[in-house]
């Protein structure tokens, strides 16, 4: 991932076990750039990322949500409404 992200200040990557990996960025600008440009995947697996507060236990973070942009083609005009958008958001 470090080769893909090209951090200015470097990065430390630690395997925490239980399918969790800790990425420690040495510069805040590198961390912000990676977090803002989600979604990331590795070997066709989605990476769920979360900023950890100092002193918090990383094993307690609920990594269960991911944001996606979805583009729907061919939706009839009658279905292009805020109600339809809201129902798709909950899907």
UniProtKB/TrEMBL annotation:
It comes from the Eukaryota. InterPro entries: At4g02000-like, DUF4283. Residues 1-51 form the DUF4283 domain. This is DUF4283 domain-containing protein. It comes from Gossypium barbadense. The lineage of its organism: Eukaryota, Viridiplantae, Streptophyta, Embryophyta, Tracheophyta.
């Amino acid at each position: 991932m470090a080769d893909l992200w090209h951090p200015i200040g470097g990065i430390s990557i630690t395997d925490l076990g239980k399918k969790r990996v800790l990425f420690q960025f040495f510069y805040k600008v590198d961390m912000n750039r990676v977090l803002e440009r989600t979604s990331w995947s590795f070997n066709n697996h989605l990476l769920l990322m979360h900023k950890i507060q100092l002193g918090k236990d990383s094993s307690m973070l609920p990594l269960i949500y991911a944001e996606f942009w979805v583009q729907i083609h061919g939706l009839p005009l009658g279905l292009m409404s805020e109600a339809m958008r809201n129902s798709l958001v909950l899907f």
